[in-house]
């Protein structure tokens, strides 16, 4: 995978498309073991973070339409979907969608193949967009944020859960675990060490909390905030589409 995946700008269109294809193929390959790997790597903590995201979404104020972008196997969508919320899960990897349909087959989920950079939805459709560990994998991240703003109704909210920059105190231990253990676990559990090396590299190259908040503001979001999770290992950024 080219180094350019980890940068947010300066990619020509052809490079972006090639990187996008490689990333999709990588997720197709890890899809059957994706959820188990998340549980093992994070000692189950990713589930707590996703529940936190769900609580932040709260009950709907509008029609109750949510988009889980880069939804993967749809575990966030499954937490969201209830009698009040109907959820579209959008992801470009058919492998992830197929695995998700088997694991999370709720009647209030609709599965849609598509990428964040060109969302296959009309303007002003969704009350909430959830984006869990997805922005980092996009080749035009700022473009994707503009797309999210476009498909949100005025007053609608983006909730973006992503790995971030941990507190200095825990960085050596965290980086040691990430660099040494995660590719080994990726090899042992998913048979895909390169995919999990990419995961570690992409986390290291992702912007910190304040920079990402700035990207949201630049894209046009209002009331931008973030909450650190587990000493900044991850963060949930939120922003609303101005009325
Ligand atoms: C790390 S997984 C996250 C899945 C799920 N949201 C979760 O929290 O477990 C990243 C997902 O992003 C998807 N993805 C990759 N490139 C994308 C793009 N350009 N637009 C939208 N999703 C993308 C992948 O197919 C994959 O399912």
From TrEMBL:
Report whether Transmembrane shows up as a keyword of the record.
Answer: no
Keywords in alphabetical order: Menaquinone biosynthesis, Methyltransferase, S-adenosyl-L-methionine, Transferase, Ubiquinone biosynthesis
Pathway annotation: Quinol/quinone metabolism; menaquinone biosynthesis; menaquinol from 1,4-dihydroxy-2-naphthoate: step 2/2; Cofactor biosynthesis; ubiquinone biosynthesis
Catalytic activity reads:
a 2-methoxy-6-(all-trans-polyprenyl)benzene-1,4-diol + S-adenosyl-L-methionine = a 5-methoxy-2-methyl-3-(all-trans-polyprenyl)benzene-1,4-diol + S-adenosyl-L-homocysteine + H(+); a 2-demethylmenaquinol + S-adenosyl-L-methionine = a menaquinol + S-adenosyl-L-homocysteine + H(+)
Task: State the superkingdom.
Answer: Bacteria
The UniProt record lists the keyword Zinc: no
Which InterPro entries does the record cross-reference, listed alphabetically? SAM-dependent_MTases_sf, UbiE/COQ5_MeTrFase, UbiE/COQ5_MeTrFase_CS
In terms of Gene3D superfamilies, this protein maps to:
Vaccinia Virus protein VP39
CDD domains documented for this protein:
AdoMet_MTases
User: One MF term from GO for this chain?
Assistant: demethylmenaquinone methyltransferase activity
- Annotated positions binding S-adenosyl-L-methionine: 73, 91
Please give a single GO biological process term from the UniProt record. methylation
Q: Which Pfam families match?
A: Ubie_methyltran
Listed transmembrane segments = none
Q: What is its EC number?
A: 2.1.1.163, 2.1.1.201
UniProt lists the family membership as follows: Belongs to the class I-like SAM-binding methyltransferase superfamily. MenG/UbiE family.
Q: What does this protein do?
A: Methyltransferase required for the conversion of demethylmenaquinol (DMKH2) to menaquinol (MKH2) and the conversion of 2-polyprenyl-6-methoxy-1,4-benzoquinol (DDMQH2) to 2-polyprenyl-3-methyl-6-methoxy-1,4-benzoquinol (DMQH2).
NCBIfam families per record: MenG_MenH_UbiE (TIGR01934)
Q: What is this protein called?
A: Ubiquinone/menaquinone biosynthesis C-methyltransferase UbiE
Source organism per entry reads: Roseospira visakhapatnamensis
